[in-house]
Amino acid sequence: MAGMLVALACGKPAPPPPVAEGATRVGVPAEATALGNELFELVDRAVEYRGARMGQPPEALRDLGLDSLTPTTARLLTGTAPIAFTATVRQPGAGLTACRATEDVLEQAALNEGRFTVECESAEGTRTYEVARPVAAPRK
Fold first, then answer.
1. How far apart are CA 5 and CA 9, in angstroms?
2. pTM for the whole structure
3. Nearest to 63 by CA among 77, 79, 81
4. CB atoms within 10 A of CB 69
5. How far apart are the first and last CA of the chain?
């Protein structure tokens, strides 16, 4: 029986990565959720851009038609293979100063009911948080 399972598994891709082990699920700061969802949107747009241009990733936010500064954050494309972004709080308080995410967040969210991980910096150091996409309102 085990041999049959091994034979069936041959040639299949490895299972997708789970939401990161060790990621904090409880007590997630509101800033982590806000920055995480901003990063998710940036990654989503960048992956869509790459798909529409035969695998050519964006080289800057302006390629996506976006500004690097918002009223609350400074955004930076930090990698293209894999696509990665950092969002830094422009006027940090006592909480988080920045969060990072790669294109893995799209797969994590698709496989984990909208949950994905971001790595964030604060005065206490680096921590990984599990955040969730906002639930869409049901259509009428």
1. 6
2. 0.81
3. 77
4. 11
5. 50
Task: Cite the DSSP H helix spans in the chain.
Answer: 2-9, 30-52, 104-111
Q: Any idea where the domains of the chain sit in the sequence?
A: 23-132
Q: Which amino acid is at 111?
A: L
pLDDT in tens, 26-64: 789 999 999 999 999 999 999 999 999 999 999 999 999
Q: Report CA torsion sign: 123, 124, 128, 132.
A: negative
Q: Which residues pair with 132 in a beta bridge?
A: 115
The residues near 79 (Cβ < 8 Å, ≥ 6 apart) are 102
Interacting residues of 67 by C-beta distance below 8 A, sequence separation 6+: 61, 75
Instruction: Kindly list the distances between the CA atom of residue 95 and the CA atoms of 34, 70, 76, 91, in Å, as whole numbers in the listed order.
Output: 13, 18, 20, 10
Question: How many whole angstroms separate alpha carbon 64 and alpha carbon 46?
Answer: 7
- The residue written with tokens 């040639």 in the block is 11
